[in-house]
């Protein structure tokens, strides 16, 4: 632009000189030089205009490229912010899943401890039942012995009638106690069986629920890892 202004100034000067030379007829030779210089200056001016036009087109193209790049940068920044937001959400989701997994593991541990405690109780009840059963067998053997003794002492009925009545009374008490013991044993076995069945069912359901939750958590974590990759 500065060169264009200089050339325009020179051109105006040349035109002024040409007009001045046209008025002076006594000096035709300098007028030709001035015309030649004016043509050269016009050519330079035309070339400068062409260069300016090309440079303007180049500047316009560069401005368009800059605008396109700025638009791309805005789009990429938007995508990056959205990806960062998604990443934060995924991290929160992973932390939530980890906390749930930890809670499920703790619940499973507590369930296992409860199950072990119940197994110990059942084992103790089983041992107690076995001891009571052995005691009942012993009582049955004694009853059998007493029955044999009764049959043996029937011949001595008249002599040992009083003693036999006492033994019959003891035997009746013993039989009533044995019946009560058998009823208690039956009720105890029924209660223990029901409790064991209910506890086994609850433990199986709890373990199945925990396993399902663990499988779902693992699937979600694997999906998120694949998504991040």
From TrEMBL:
GO terms for cellular component: centriole; centrosome. Keywords: Coiled coil. The keyword Coiled coil applies. Residues 1-15 have a biased composition (Basic and acidic residues). The lineage of its organism: Eukaryota, Metazoa, Chordata, Craniata, Vertebrata. It comes from Atlantisia rogersi. This is CNTLN protein. Residues 31-191 form a coiled coil. The keyword Coiled coil applies. Residues 1-31 are annotated as: Disordered.
């Amino acid at each position: 632009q500065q060169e264009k202004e200089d050339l325009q100034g020179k051109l105006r000067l040349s035109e002024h000189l040409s007009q001045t030379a046209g008025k002076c007829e006594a000096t035709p030779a300098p007028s030709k030089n001035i015309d030649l210089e004016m043509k050269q200056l016009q050519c330079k001016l035309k070339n400068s205009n062409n260069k300016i036009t090309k440079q303007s087109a180049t500047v316009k193209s560069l401005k368009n490229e800059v605008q396109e790049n700025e638009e791309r940068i805005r789009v990429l920044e938007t995508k990056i912010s959205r990806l960062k937001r998604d990443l934060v959400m995924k991290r929160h989701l992973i932390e939530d899943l980890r906390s749930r997994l930890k809670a499920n593991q703790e619940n499973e541990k507590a369930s296992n401890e409860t199950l072990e405690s119940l197994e110990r109780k059942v084992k103790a009840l089983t041992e107690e039942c076995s001891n009571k059963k052995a005691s009942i067998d012993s009582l049955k053997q004694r009853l059998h012995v007493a029955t044999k003794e009764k049959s043996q002492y029937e011949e001595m009925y008249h002599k040992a009638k009083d003693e036999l009545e006492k033994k019959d009374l003891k035997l009746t008490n013993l039989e009533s106690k044995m019946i009560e013991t058998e009823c208690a044993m039956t009720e105890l076995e029924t209660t223990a069986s029901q409790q064991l069945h209910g506890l086994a069912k609850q433990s199986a359901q709890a373990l199945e629920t925990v396993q399902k939750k663990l499988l779902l958590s693992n699937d979600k974590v694997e999906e998120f890892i694949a998504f991040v990759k």
